[in-house]
Inverse folding.
């Protein structure tokens, strides 16, 4: 019996030792990963409160600084920048919106609208963006999309169209939400700091309604009445960043208990346009953290990045065309096709870069072509890379046709000689 108990003790001891080793290795790996993240963050001397953050060049869409930028997280009322742009693109500002009971019962912050009240869509957009009213968001969504579900489908389609593949919208106001899609997958109302910045880039620079979006989001205040003129309302812009830095363009705050404080904003100064997005940037009583982080990142961008023309002309020689008809139209000699950049007017490629950043250029051209060759055919490319990220691609095309020296052509050539 003693031998058995001693055997069991050895087994248990061995198991405990193995578990200790595993825990030690796991802890070491975690420390190494944390150290790597800290070194990456500290290499820019940027320390942020936000758990996830992005500084983006609004012209190119390049992420200049990222902290957990691909982590999927709830985004609260920053959602409303997408709500606003979708409503502008799909609705008429002069439309009359009739408030539903569903819209009227939305939680604070709300306008305090009543079921069956009517408003101009334009007025509700100011209510949405300046005061972040949740009831206005639902009234807008139901009017433009037919329902909140229909409007969310428009939001998700737009997100995919502009390359935001880690974003999923359920509500138009950003309240925390979970749903199950038609495939049975559980989806959470969420985005990433990278995607949120990308959505703002679309709103201020790419959408056909960008000027209307900026006009709404930059307004300091706005007053309006319901359609019947029975009740009056006044809104003040709660985006304090608009007065914090010269060149502030637009922005939207957000908060829920789950998301914490969030923010996305844009600034244009000295010919440079930056976007900052912050997720989980503190909880009460830390509402000022988002302003501190935003100013930190915007200042970093302004002080460290300048535009440089990185375009380099490339000499392109004609390509040999195998089995091609030579220029003299005779069956001896070699055939060549002239090539050129598709965009022959390209003389500049201005990129926002730090002093130590270098662009790599990769030229891809085949050694030869096979006949026949059609004028305007793409045969290669010139690609500009920054840290292995493709920044710009110029296509190389043929400038002339080259026929194939096939049997039919040879017969035609012999016939021409005979006829002479």
């Amino acid at each position: 019996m003693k031998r058995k108990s001693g055997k069991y003790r050895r087994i248990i001891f061995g198991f405990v030792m193995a578990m200790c080793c595993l825990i030690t290795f796991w802890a070491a790996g975690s420390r190494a990963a944390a150290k790597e993240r800290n070194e990456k963050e500290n290499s820019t001397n940027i320390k942020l409160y936000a758990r996830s953050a992005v500084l983006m060049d609004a012209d190119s869409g390049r992420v200049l600084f990222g902290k957990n930028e691909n982590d999927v997280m709830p985004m609260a009322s920053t959602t409303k920048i997408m709500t606003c742009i979708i409503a502008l693109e799909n609705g008429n500002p002069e439309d009359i919106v009739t408030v539903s009971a569903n819209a009227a019962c939305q939680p604070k912050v709300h306008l305090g609208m009543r079921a069956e009240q009517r408003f101009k869509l334009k007025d509700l957009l100011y209510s949405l963006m300046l005061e972040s009213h949740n009831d206005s968001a639902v009234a807008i969504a139901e009017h433009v999309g037919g329902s909140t579900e229909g409007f969310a489908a428009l939001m998700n389609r737009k997100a995919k169209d502009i390359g935001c593949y880690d974003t999923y919208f359920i509500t138009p106001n950003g309240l925390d939400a979970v749903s199950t899609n038609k495939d049975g997958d559980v989806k959470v109302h969420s985005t990433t700091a990278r995607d949120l910045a990308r959505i703002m880039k679309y709103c201020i620079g790419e959408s056909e309604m960008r000027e209307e979006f900026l006009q709404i989001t930059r307004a300091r205040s706005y007053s309006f009445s319901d359609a019947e003129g029975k009740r009056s309302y006044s809104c003040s812009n709660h985006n304090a960043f608009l007065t914090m830095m010269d060149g502030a363009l637009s922005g939207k705050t957000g908060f829920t208990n789950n998301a914490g404080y969030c923010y996305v904003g844009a600034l244009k100064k000295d010919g440079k346009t930056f976007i900052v997005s912050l997720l989980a940037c503190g909880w009460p009583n830390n509402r000022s953290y988002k302003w501190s982080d935003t100013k930190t990142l915007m200042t970093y961008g302004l002080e460290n990045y300048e535009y440089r023309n990185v375009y380099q002309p490339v000499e392109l020689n004609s390509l040999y065309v195998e089995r091609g008809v030579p220029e003299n139209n005779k069956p001896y000699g070699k055939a060549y096709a002239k090539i050129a950049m598709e965009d022959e007017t390209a003389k500049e490629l201005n990129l926002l870069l730090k002093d130590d950043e270098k662009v790599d250029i990769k030229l891809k051209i085949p050694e030869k072509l096979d006949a026949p060759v059609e004028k305007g055919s793409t045969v290669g490319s010139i690609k500009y890379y920054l840290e292995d990220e493709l920044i710009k691609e110029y296509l190389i095309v043929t400038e002339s046709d080259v026929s194939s020296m096939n049997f039919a052509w040879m017969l035609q050539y012999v016939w021409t000689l005979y006829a002479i």
